[in-house]
Amino acid sequence: MKGQRVLITGGTGGLGLGVVPAILAQGAELTIPYQKESEVERLKHHLSATEFSKIRFVAANLLNEAVVEQLIDDMGRVDVLIHLVGGFAMGKTHEYAYEAWKQDFDLNLHTTFLACKHSLRKMLEQGYGRIVTVGSRGAVQPVGQLASYGASKAAVVALTKAIADETKGTNITANCVLPSVIDTPANREAMGTTEADRWVKPESLAQVICFLASEAAQDLRGATIPVYGSI
Ligand SMILES: NC(=O)c1ccc[n+]([C@@H]2O[C@H](COP(=O)([O-])OP(=O)(O)OC[C@H]3O[C@@H](n4cnc5c(N)ncnc54)[C@H](OP(=O)(O)O)[C@@H]3O)[C@@H](O)[C@H]2O)c1
């Protein structure tokens, strides 16, 4: 990935703490859109000053198509898109607010669509690209009280497979990782640390993502890779 332009959305989130250093170690030129300054500060504490100085941070709400288009146009080219943005909310279906359902689809699916759409535009011009999206185990093994999460992540899988089909015959690929529970600061805070050694480490998931984002993964298309750790 040396010299390649890599866009990591959600790079300041919990998973980003593992993915960003791994991608920087490959010699890539990184752009990270963010919303909260506090998360940029948190990432800063996980990186050396030299690593941090190599990242271009851009304040951007990825639900605004004009903002996504500008972000990607400003990059000039996009060799790799790693779309980490996403999140979950819980609730029984018969009690779930329609507004909350739509917000979950915004966060998980619609950000993925916009980031993929505009990155693909560049990748098709360039004739090269790697797209890595993040689904969830819940996309293929849905569980109760997480219907909107499972449904929106299943849609991320479908979108990724559709892109893989559309880009057959090119050097552009799209694949999706399906994590179970990731060992992030937010999960430790919410669930304690008793089970944490069985969760997937961000650094471990980062290695899978790095391979999917590499030139070597040219023949892997539309894969959904379970990365479940020991749970
Ligand atoms: N954590 C887990 O156990 C787990 C398990 C399975 C799958 N996953 C998936 O893995 C991915 C990363 O999870 P995570 O734990 O790192 O989540 P996270 O800590 O909540 O990070 C999500 C990131 O997305 C950004 N984001 C959200 N909405 C945005 C928007 N409209 N525009 C721009 N940025 C936006 C957030 O930035 P701001 O905070 O600044 O808005 C944050 O940096 C997600 O797709 C998640 O669904 C996570």
UniProtKB/TrEMBL annotation:
PANTHER family: DIHYDROANTICAPSIN 7-DEHYDROGENASE
Protein name as it appears in the record: 3-oxoacyl-ACP reductase
The keyword Oxidoreductase belongs to this UniProt entry's keyword annotation: yes
This protein's UniProt keywords: Oxidoreductase
NCBIfam families associated with the record: PRK05653.2-1 (NF004201)
Pfam families: adh_short
Gene3D superfamilies membership: NAD(P)-binding Rossmann-like Domain
Entry similarity comment: Belongs to the short-chain dehydrogenases/reductases (SDR) family.
Molecular function as annotated in GO: oxidoreductase activity
